[in-house]
Amino acid sequence: MDIDYVANLARIELSDEEKSTYQKQLGDVLKYFDKLQELDVENVEPTAHAFPRHNVWDKDEARAGLSVEEALKNAPQSRQDQVVVPKVIEE
Amino acid sequence: MSSNSLIFKSATELSQDLQAGTVSSVEITQAMIDRINAVDEQVHAFLHMDVQDALDQAKASDERRAKGECVSPLDGVPVGMKDVIAVKDQPLTAASKILENYRSPYDATVVRKLKEAGAVVAGRLNLDEFAMGSSTENSAYGPTRNPWNLDCVPGGSSGGSSAAVAAREVPLSLGSDTGGSIRQPASLCGVVGMKPTYGMVSRYGLAAFASSLDQIGPFSTTVEDAALLLEIISGHDSLDSTSYPTEVPSYSAELKNSCEPKVLGLPKEFFGPGMDDEVRASIEQVIEYYRSIGYQTKEVSLPTTDLSIPVYYVIATAEASSNLARYDGIRYTSRSERAENAIDVYAKSRGEGFGSEVKRRCILGAYALSSGYYDAYYLRAQKARTLIRQDFEKAFAEVDAILTPTSPTPAFKFGEKSDDPISMYLSDVYTISTNLAGLPGISVPCGFSGSGLPIGVQLIGKAFEESSLLQIAHAYDRAHLHGRQAPNL
Fold first, then answer.
1. Is B97 marked active-site?
2. Which chain A residues in 53-82 lie under 8 Å from chain B, judged by CB atoms?
């Protein structure tokens, strides 16, 4: 496993120590997963949910949601009823 | 009535006492608070306890009762919450640093139902961070200890919920079960724990780990109490599109009906090597008891059993890596002070905020879903999941329930498995396939090891047939009541 590549996909910063521990541990876990590769799954449909339901509709009616203050109460930084984030668009 | 006698009562007994007027909800709740103050320093089941809020709810219950407006058998009875179930204005940390300062802006559906039933919703119970673990050692706020032996783990991930009930700090609690996280800690702490059929209980307001596997369920000291709590929290909810539109019978009323002896399946793959001798002996006694009351037993085969752990860890980590993307340092989690740009906000906040098992699983899940590996891992695991489900369907054509141990061993010591993920994952070997198949499962205390650690038996039922499963479990439990034995604390 390319640990730097996958950690970036997962958007998790790892220390060098964590990288080497995970590299070893996840290598063992993936080896343990090899059992799956030996399995014959041809013509088997995948299961996403044990009891799948389709086209679940709800009544089209307005309900009260969270107020702006409630929705922003847990935000680490907010201003003028909005969440503040570092600039993402380059000038 | 002395508080000491109150804490040792079952929820059913407390309910009867409240109805008889011999005790008030304030007295029960105060007894619970006193017990927490006396023993939780040792056990550490609670991450937070809002004493005033609990007493206010109890007072409101007593006022309702005085006016003859009692709303349910659980009106005035305290119920503790695993710290992943949202209670409006209370903390929800998921035992993670990343949610250290979070307060829930709304009630989970199970909490709304309990409040409507008049229960005293009190206490935030410890867990493995984001419900990932089997020992509660992965909590960012320190582990919970097993009330039967403080050197041992309580199991996990709902270790706070099981230990709090075992230590008689609260008569009932809720946990969540993704691969055994209710049943395994119930077994290790000597209490009853039940995972309902997938879709039976709304997941709205439960911090998601693996959405296709997670279910909320009850902890209690008796099967009778579990039925009482389950019938309140079950039922369809339009806020959870996977919740199933099915009738919820009165489980507690149906327990009182006589139940014909049933046929129990014993999966031969579960009774092979790897099971502790004392666990095996204890389970054999349970089987003997069922035979003595007229039940038949039958060997069944679940040939895909050895696939369940790899299938589970692929599916659960893939779903977790996607679900936990919401903890991004932007909307409602702590943000790294070192973050200078947008990517930093994500990566540094998550790197600082998540503990090591959560990082390990998010990375494994991201790998299983990544380009080039999706077919080999995630899709293949979903196909294997179909085979596991079909194994159970075949077995249930011949039997009414399946009987197994809940855990291969009694509670283990702290640190014993924490450096070896695979050995920790194997402690869920008997519980995991139930989640993959979506079936209901219950762990019932069935005795103790030579060193005094509890052992649990697992019964797995047919989908949406909780009533039958509870009847079968009750047939054993009411004659033994091992869960009513309390540890010395």
1. no
2. 53, 56, 58-59, 66, 70-71, 73-77
